[in-house]
């Protein structure tokens, strides 16, 4: 499984980066690591079905083979996905 994620407090540039990354990794699943900005939340309410994102708690982290990080500088802002950073077998 491939996961595309970004920083907590996801804003529109982070969301756009996730969508762009999916063009490069079409099999990857989008997952928000935590909170999202109010405006992004409103957008997701309207167009979320187009994103087909999955909740972090619905992901079996043991099945993740690739973690694609976008628009993030600090690893402490990627929520549960921080567990995958040094895991053997995860790109």
UniProtKB/TrEMBL annotation:
CC cofactor:
Mg(2+)
One BP annotation, GO: tRNA processing
Which InterPro entries does this chain map to? DHH_sf (IPR038763), tRNA_nt/polyA_polymerase (IPR052390)
Record keywords, A-Z: Magnesium, Metal-binding, Nucleotide-binding, Nucleotidyltransferase, RNA-binding, Transferase, tRNA processing
A GO term, aspect molecular function: metal ion binding
Protein's UniProt name: Uncharacterized protein
């Amino acid at each position: 499984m491939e996961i595309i994620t970004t920083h907590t407090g996801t804003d529109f540039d982070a969301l756009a980066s996730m969508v762009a990354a999916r063009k490069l990794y079409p099999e990857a699943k989008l997952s928000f690591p935590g909170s999202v900005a109010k405006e992004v939340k409103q957008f997701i309410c309207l167009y979320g079905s187009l994103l087909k994102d999955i909740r972090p708690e619905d992901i079996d982290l043991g099945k993740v083979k690739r973690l694609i990080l976008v628009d993030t500088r600090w690893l402490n802002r990627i929520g549960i996905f921080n567990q995958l950073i040094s895991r053997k077998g995860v790109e």
